[in-house]
Amino acid sequence: MTTLPKPSTLLPKGLQIQQINHLTLFKFTDELSDRLQTLLDKKKADTLSSEEILELEAISELDEIFSYINAVIAARVSERF
């Protein structure tokens, strides 16, 4: 049985913090971005293995978390200006 990897296991190699204007944002590293794109391409072609499906779910969850955090940061900064 294959289990869903915890999104937090992707953080050491997959997270970067980037300063954009007045914002400090969380982004994927190029390596994780490339892996996400590869998995999405394989999903579109319907060639994902069961392990890759779970990996895609974990990366997608991490992407949702980063997007939410970045949106909150952007909203708070825009309130100050």
Give structural notes.
The protein is elongated, with a radius of gyration of 15 Å. It is built from three helices and two strands. Helix 2 (30-44) crosses helix 3 (50-80). Helices cover 62% and strands 15% of the residues. The chain has one domain. It has a two-stranded antiparallel sheet. The chain is α+β, with helices and mostly antiparallel strands. It has helices at residues 11-14, 30-44, 50-80, and strands at 15-20, 23-28.
> What structural class is derived from the secondary structure elements?
alpha+beta
CA-based gyration radius: 15 Å
Tell me the domain tally: 1
Helix proportion range: 55-70%
Strand order of the largest sheet: 1-2
Topology:
Elements: H1 11-14, E1 15-20, E2 23-28, H2 30-44, H3 50-80
Antiparallel strand pairs: 1-2
Helix pairs in contact: 2-3
Please summarize what this structure is.
The chain is of the alpha+beta class and 81 residues long. It has 3 helices and 2 strands, in the order αββαα. Strands 1-2 form a two-stranded antiparallel sheet.
Give keywords.
81 residues, alpha+beta, 2 strands
